[in-house]
Amino acid sequence: MGKKVFLNFDRERTQLAQEAARIIVEQGIQDFRVAKIKAAERLGMSSQGALPNNTEIESAVADHLRLFGRDEYTASLTHLRQAALSAMELLSIYSPRLVGPVLSGTAAEHSAVNLHLFWDQAESVAGFLEDNGVRFKLFERRLKHRRNQVSSHAGYRFEHQATVIEATVFPINGMRQAPISPVDGKPMRRVDAQALTRLLNDKSF
Question: Which helix (H) or strand (E) holds 138?
């Protein structure tokens, strides 16, 4: 009986992860917790139980993207990464790094490209964008740097090559320590333009 209960629990957990992944891809929801709760509601399961963790959700998103339209997924991810590289070249003075779903390969078609920029005066980025004729919107992003330390960072959202770019500005010394990923609780993976170029040339996704 115990084994049967365990198998049912594992199956429900997998179903929840798959449904949350579908919601993330189709609705463009970036908050994994919101997607998990929506998935539990749709499947008539309790959202108070042991939901899939974020790493399981991220894996399910990647599986969903590959399963439903491999060619479209590859073309979309290539476009997003090319747009990211072009934006990084534009913003090269700020030592940009690519992070998030476009880097990990879990980005949906309309996902934003997430960049980290490094400069001690965040408003410098606004001036740079204005000087280059780029219209932008300012936003604030709260990121965890240590277990109990959350900091706010200015960010700039703009469109580049028909793609939304979200560039978050860190002080120059913020390059040494990446903020904590909300997916796996580890420091975010960051890559520079050279590494992204190699990723594009590799085409293994």
Answer: strand 136-146
